[in-house]
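Researcher: Structure prediction, please.
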Amino acid sequence: MKSEGKRKKGDFIIILVVLLVGIGATLPWLWNKVNPSKPADERIAVITRGGKEMARVDLSDVQESQRFHYEDGIEVTILAEDGTIKFEQAGCPDQICVKTGTLTKKGDIAVCLPSETIVVIEGDKYE
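Model: Predicted structure follows.
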């Protein structure tokens, strides 16, 4: 058979469908590039004591060390620095909250049960 090089109506429809699928596949990627929702590393540390929220710290914005000191009941000091947060000191006998160490990722949590103090890093997705 001899091909004459003429395009048929069906050829144009196939080309059009392929182009539309390609454009449709790239639109969500382009939209996210132009309109990013939240920074990927947004981490908010929430400090609660006795069931009451005491502080909310955006760890990605911490430039200098910040100390949160609570004296009512059992005394605790919480330190936020360099995108991290931790119990620096606690007046409880077992020191489990201090031994928990530094919290860095979304979903990390440290609790001092005797003082009813909780530090948790919140975010959209847990790592």
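Model: The CA atoms of residues 11 and 50 lie 71 Å apart.
Researcher: Thanks, that helps.
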